[in-house]
Amino acid sequence: MPPTPATPAIEFRNVSYQVAETHVLRSLTLQVQPGETLALLGRSGSGKTTTLKLVNRLLSPTAGEVLVNGVPNLNADVTRLRRSIGYVIQEVGLFPHFTVARNIGLVPKIEGWPEPRVRARVEELLQMVGLAPELASRYPHQLSGGQRQRVGVARALAADPQILLMDEPFGALDPLTRDELQREFISLQKRLRKTVVFVTHDLREAMRLGSRIALMEAGKLVTILSPDEFLRSTDPWASAYVKAFGDRLESTTTEGKS
Length: 258
Fold this sequence. Notes:
Layout lengths: L9 E10 L2 E11 L4 E5 L6 H8 L7 E6 L2 E2 L5 H6 L1 E5 L10 H5 L1 H5 L4 H14 L16 H13 L5 E5 L7 H18 L2 E6 L2 H7 L2 E6 L2 E6 L1 H5 L4 H9 L5 H5 L4
Parallel strand pairs: 3-8, 3-9, 6-7, 7-8
Antiparallel strand pairs: 1-2, 1-4, 4-5, 9-10
């Protein structure tokens, strides 16, 4: 018998989201497979962040359903669902009155982990994201933007979720720091093999980090392709994106994916 296909980690079944008369998302159908990094690519207002927020029920669809590991997420306990999914945003969202260690260890502590295990996990994650151990006692305002973003990633990974949602996490950083964090993300993903949905409006970032790219426009899924397929696509929307980003994309498609 042929092998049974794996249950998608995330699945959208004809999902729409509407605010008053505005259709933010229209009839979205797609699957995200376990261990892949799906880059949601599109301009502002294309529906990328809305799609992300529908996964962990920060928003609920007005039509269709979203499944997480084969279970409709509207049937799940929302608190348990959110604790089981890591979430990283551009603004990081660290608690300013918490130390780095307390920010990272927050979800494990809520989950009832014993204190020694929480401390060990914080130490492990600081090393994993490239932060010195002495930073554990500092507060967010004492860190650089890149350091805060690393703490945000560490916090999202703290309880070892299988799914990670990332909403333009490197978009506010300077180019050198952004490049460094992209490289670290590639290295981490090779080791951890999380299921990642990564929102970006930057084609080079999507090419570099995504195993597939879902191009969105005006609340609709235009196409979903591998980076190599996207680069050579004859779809007019994809072709326009490639043209807008110039001629330096070929090397980006293969970096970090071997």
